[in-house]
Write a structure and sequence with these properties.
By secondary structure, the protein is α/β, with parallel strands linked by helices. The protein contains seven helices and seven strands, in the order H-E-H-E-H-H-E-E-E-E-H-H-E-H. The protein starts with a helix and ends in a 26-residue tail after the last helix.
Length: 194
């Protein structure tokens, strides 16, 4: 459905900016969630972003989906950042596997991006876990002393802070060769017989 509707939604947003905000100029850059995440979702999102960047002749910025998740938590629950210094955004990677990294309360990277199988390994620093990966493993995480904030999903608003930071530093991608951060190789599943 996103492949069919995303261009129309972008067109509606640009028209809204023109009509309601009186913004006639073209955008200065395009920011896109770069993964990890759904293979299909990442390919569709990046294809649209690259097409817009190329068509409008503006730069492209790829932002980690986990960083977007971190800033989404910050927008929804700012008090968590006054209570805790360690944050583990987690994206569901099926079964008990998650994509995660560790950030502190100033968004400094403490542990790099990795795939983690939670019933075999847990984060090495106690902190706040959130995202659909943490939601599915709430009992395991809380049993092991982690705080879990449920219901946090990446929001467009979570893309804004890192995008503005990269834009101010002119940290752009080469849109011709830029690819999503899949983290793992794609594994096609065979269709089940009925």
């Amino acid at each position: 459905v996103h492949a069919e509707k995303l261009h129309l939604l972008v067109q509606d947003c640009l028209q809204f900016l023109k009509d309601e905000v009186a913004l006639d100029a073209k955008p200065n850059a395009i920011a896109v969630g770069s993964g990890p995440g759904s293979y299909t979702g990442l390919r569709i999102g990046l294809s649209v972003a690259k097409g817009l960047a190329y068509g409008l002749d503006i730069p492209l910025m790829g932002i980690s989906s986990l960083e977007v998740l971190y800033y989404s938590l910050k927008a929804l629950h700012p008090t968590e950042f006054q209570k805790h210094p360690i944050f583990w955004p987690m994206i569901d990677a099926r079964r008990m596997e998650v994509y995660t990294l560790c950030l502190d309360d100033t968004a400094s990277l403490l542990s790099p991006l990795k795939a983690m199988i939670l019933d075999e390994e847990l984060p090495n620093k106690k902190g706040v876990c959130f995202g659909d990966g943490a939601d599915k493993a709430i009992e395991l995480l809380e049993w092991n002393g982690f705080e879990v904030v449920t219901g946090i999903l990446p929001m467009a608003k979570g893309l804004l802070v890192p995008a503005l930071s990269r834009f101010s530093k002119a940290e752009f991608e080469d849109s011709e060769v830029y690819e999503p951060d899949y983290l793992k190789e794609f594994q096609a599943l065979k269709k089940k017989s009925s």
